[in-house]
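Memo to structure team: turn this sequence into structure tokens by end of day. - J.P.
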Amino acid sequence: EVQLVESGGGSVQAGGSLRLSCVASGFSFDDYAIGWFRQAPGKEREEISCFVTTTGSTWYADSVKGRFTIDSDNAKNTVYLQMNNLKPEDTAVYYCNAAGALWGQGTQVTVSS
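Reply from structure team:
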């Protein structure tokens, strides 16, 4: 079965850190761009980071630049999102996406002030 599964979400206080994981199964993400998105209550889903395994290139939204880092473990077919210095406005459901088409189920991140 082709799927993405996110994990690592939770509740933290402002200034804390979390590391999200996105495991791909049924396919290798080597040939695809993997993106992290988030959706806060009442807001549209937004892309916050992207990683292209073939080139190693990364992209970050201004809202997370300098605080979040995307990387991968190809042997585990996993992409990570390291989130540092979390803010209450980072509260959202976080999703990973492959090639703009395949979505995971999401993982909740809640940051309290």
